[in-house]
TrEMBL record:
<dbReference type="GO" id="GO:0005886">
    <property type="term" value="C:plasma membrane"/>
</dbReference>
<keyword id="KW-0349">Heme</keyword>
<keyword id="KW-0812">Transmembrane</keyword>
<dbReference type="InterPro" id="IPR050597">
    <property type="entry name" value="Cytochrome_c_Oxidase_Subunit"/>
</dbReference>
<keyword id="KW-0679">Respiratory chain</keyword>
<keyword id="KW-0472">Membrane</keyword>
<keyword id="KW-0732">Signal</keyword>
<feature type="binding site" description="covalent">
    <location>
        <position position="163"/>
    </location>
    <ligand>
        <name>heme c 2</name>
    </ligand>
</feature>
<dbReference type="InterPro" id="IPR006311">
    <property type="entry name" value="TAT_signal"/>
</dbReference>
<keyword id="KW-0408">Iron</keyword>
<dbReference type="GO" id="GO:0005506">
    <property type="term" value="F:iron ion binding"/>
</dbReference>
<feature type="domain" description="Cytochrome c">
    <location>
        <begin position="53"/>
        <end position="132"/>
    </location>
</feature>
<feature type="binding site" description="covalent">
    <location>
        <position position="160"/>
    </location>
    <ligand>
        <name>heme c 2</name>
    </ligand>
</feature>
<feature type="signal peptide">
    <location>
        <begin position="1"/>
        <end position="41"/>
    </location>
</feature>
<keyword id="KW-1133">Transmembrane helix</keyword>
<dbReference type="GO" id="GO:0020037">
    <property type="term" value="F:heme binding"/>
</dbReference>
<comment type="subunit">
    <text>The cytochrome bc1 complex is composed of a cytochrome b (QcrB), the Rieske iron-sulfur protein (QcrA) and a diheme cytochrome c (QcrC) subunit.</text>
</comment>
């Protein structure tokens, strides 16, 4: 009997040792894999150099994705205008806001998520600038928001409010076109819109608005974006349309409900 007990006890120790060895092996393997992954993530990746795109890369991207409408050499076609003279500023605006490439012909190219990375857009814009020239990026001072906000707000009311709404909420135009809201527009894209005149927007050159006035106008819009509405709910900032609808639905609706309640109580 004693010999059988020793054999069984020895067998139990052997199985536990096997389980322990397997567990230690799994821990060591997992630790080595985690360490290797962390080391790979910490080392400077060579992709930072391989993903830097050149002007030639921009040409290839343009000819593969844009030339169907705009021509192989910016000459344009029956499906799209030529891009000679538009410049890198217009290309960056149209592509970074997702307006280009267009998904389908429509009265106006809608804003959507961009289909290219910032590096790809910069490469395409550089090639268009090199081949056709045109408007370039402004200095950082114009975009810093440090202009005269009061002067800029007056310039916005005079030059922009008739389409974009006095509160910058946008508005409808003719034939299915519209002026978009500027409340989420970056300083660079505000400047690009004034200089390049996308869609139905007129071009505001230096004869119309000087660089200092553009800076003031951009500063005013940035100020509007950051400030809450002092009057409470904006109701879309659409003025008497949304405000009147609110009064009809909730104001008169509440009066009707109160009248019905009083009548029911009296009966």
């Amino acid at each position: 009997m004693s010999r059988e007990k020793k054999t069984r006890a020895g067998g139990r120790r052997s199985r536990m040792a096997t389980v322990a060895l397997i567990g230690i092996g799994l821990l060591l393997t997992g630790g080595a894999y985690a360490g290797a992954s962390a080391a790979m993530a910490a080392t400077p990746s060579s992709s930072t150099t391989t993903t830097e795109l050149t002007v030639d890369d921009g040409k290839k991207l343009f000819q593969a994705n844009c030339a169907t409408c705009h021509g192989m050499n910016l000459e344009g076609s029956e499906n799209g205008p030529g891009l000679a003279g538009t410049g890198e500023l217009a290309v960056e605006f149209q592509m970074a806001t997702g307006r280009m490439p267009m998904q389908a012909q429509s009265p106006q190219a809608p804003q959507k998520a961009p289909q290219f990375t910032d590096e790809q857009i910069a490469a395409i814009a550089s090639w268009v600038q090199q081949e056709g020239g045109g408007a370039t990026f402004p200095s950082e001072e114009i975009l810093d928001g440090g202009g005269n906000v009061a002067e800029g707000a007056e310039l916005f009311r005079i030059n922009c409010a008739m389409c974009h709404n006095v509160a910058g909420a946008g508005g409808a135009l003719t034939e299915g076109k519209y002026a978009p809201s500027v409340m989420n527009t970056s300083a660079l894209h505000l400047y690009a819109a004034m200089v390049t005149g996308p869609q139905n927007m007129p071009v505001f050159n230096d004869m119309t608005l000087t660089e200092d006035e553009k800076r003031d106008l951009i500063s005013a819009v940035l100020y509007m974006q950051e400030q809450p509405s002092p009057g409470g709910m904006t109701l879309g900032s659409l003025g008497p349309v949304s405000e009147g609808l609110f009064v009809w639905i909730f104001g008169i609706g509440a009066l009707v409900a109160l009248t019905v309640w009083i009548t029911a109580k009296s009966n």
